[in-house]
UniProtKB/TrEMBL annotation:
Keyword Protein biosynthesis carried by entry: no
EC annotation from Swiss-Prot or TrEMBL: 3.2.2.n1
Transmembrane segments: none
Any Pfam family matching the protein: Lysine_decarbox
Species for this entry: Heyndrickxia acidicola
Protein name from the UniProt record: Cytokinin riboside 5'-monophosphate phosphoribohydrolase
Keywords recorded for this protein, A-Z: Cytokinin biosynthesis, Hydrolase
Xref: InterPro entries: LOG, LOG_fam
Family (UniProt): Belongs to the LOG family.
Annotated Gene3D superfamilies: 3.40.50.450
Amino acid sequence: MKKICVFAGSNPGNKLSYASEAKRLGKLLADKQIDLVYGGSCKGLMGAVADQVIESGGNVIGVMPSSLFSSEIVHQGLTELIEVSTMHERKAKMGELADAFIALPGGYGTFEELFEVVCWSQIGLHHKPIGVLNIDEFYTPLLNLVKHAAKEGFMNPSYIDLIISSTTSSDLLEKLALRDHPVYRAK
């Protein structure tokens, strides 16, 4: 893995552990010489992971629509900033650049980005590993919802494994690196 796309909140959240683990992830990415691809903001968990990669000597590629420049403050220390026109272009570009995906805690935007890459994997548009950093069980309710959807017959149970989960950055990176794309049963 040369580049990992990280989806994360543009807010820091209510627990210090969110930013602490985001920074741990940033340090590990830099130490492993894995470039960070992300949304380009200097705010919240997005900013925390990017700041740590930069501080640790790594490369950070931000992708941001020009329409967000006024509301999301663009990180000024990026290795590269890719300006796009729309959110759709942003997600497509981040997906194109990345070898894997990690979701840190966040809100609607983070959830939407995570589920879009999961859907893309499900239908075979990519075969890149996808993980959630389940800091303080932030993603446990979502992972339970995915299992519930399978139990209720709305998705094939083999698709549950599309999302790799771990509570620590080091374990998640190891799991992503070892991940073979699973073979899914047809509908």
